């Protein structure tokens, strides 16, 4: 039987994978797109939007941004661990990539900022799901691409002519076949769902990290590249976005955005660690969810502590930090009922007790009672002498019981390290030389962008990089033909 041969095989059918796929079919490359899941899109289905500094939408609104300033911001934010050359190339092409997305069926609804950050976020209509399934995927299919699902790339061997023998394994039937490719593009999304890899990564507390993604980012692309001599390149970047309700029995995406979640993660209430002591100015943390995640990640356990009075006030009256336009009014009308429902369902994250002493015992926080007394005294005096939180956010945890503790983990979307690439997204070996024909894009090849933290002050940069890197890799393949 004649072996199937391709110009390029793309491993992973998420946002980056489809960006590469569309660029490949536009350049008449015989392309195979391989997806281990039953459905395509991966974590890209949940993406809100992509970065650009000079898109046509920004130009129409006279809202273009200084590219040099953006570059300096990203380099400074990463403490110069980011690759300045890659950032320059990415920023220079980002606006064109927005237009390219629209030409390939993805609809951009508006340009926005996140909090006080730069207005760089080009939000998809229908999020990444619609951009992929109503745009990039049908475009690639119309152009004749081959897409296989429920198929893993389980082995990758490079031949003497630098082509690759790629072993494809059906994840259901366990059957295998080997095909040949001149080039391989890794787009498997990083390793956020691989607990063992998280454990060896700097700066992480994997027991506290709650992945809010497709669940399929298990480091497949990294392992394939490492087997071929790629450099292991860890910076410790997980794209953290603040607290998440910690309950292993419920998919995290079902809890994100609920009234319970917002009341304890968006509102600057009292957060304590495993000792029952505060560890941050909660109001400063919620302004930037990367900072919120970092501060929580340093603790072994995290709880939001509040009283029945606070619960009732948040439900019936108001809460202190406005969440408009995300929450239409300055209260959570369903909060009390949602807490009662969670209690009835026995949710792991919820703890309730008649007294603070009983609550402290239940969640094993030995200093909680003493610290709450201290916190309430600071609230009465109108001054947070521990962390200088503004007085308006110092809500005393007092009154009649019951009292509540909501356990939190740190939500994370993706990782930003694992493989080192050059400005053409070629995977580099331990000597810094390209492995011929091997490319990494999206989460598999994003270590060039980050230090240990994703910068939410310039939103959309990771999703935008998925588009940029996918196209960038294919352009290099075409250049080398």
TrEMBL record:
Residues 7-445 form the FAD-dependent oxidoreductase 2 FAD-binding domain. Its cofactor is FAD. It comes from the Bacteria. Keywords: FAD, Flavoprotein, Oxidoreductase. Signal peptide: none annotated. One of its GO terms (molecular function) is steroid dehydrogenase activity, acting on the CH-CH group of donors. This is Putative Fumarate reductase. It comes from Lactobacillus kimbladii. The lineage of its organism: Bacteria, Bacillati, Bacillota, Bacilli, Lactobacillales.
